[in-house]
User: Fold Branched-chain amino acid ABC transporter from Azospirillum palustre.
Amino acid sequence: MPEALHLDWSVFAIVLGGALVTWMTRIGGPWLIARVRLGPAANAALEATPGAVLVALVAPAALSRPSDALAAAFVCLIARRVPMVVAVVAGVVAVMALRRLI
Assistant:
């Protein structure tokens, strides 16, 4: 068998294990939440999680360059006034323009 077609069983097992763990968290989270009564603080934390994850992913990139920080500030200003898709497109255009200028 050519080396390019060789199947490494340890890699296969790691990928399969990762898929299984991912599937279990996708199924297990809703299953657990349906069976546990949460207080107001826990509900507030769960509702804030998607935004916090997004900020954690975007903030380092947005603060890496002055042009990106300005573009992020611009998007923050317009995001509440326009539809989200418009804010995203405006952000992309702002990053491109500011990177060229700064």
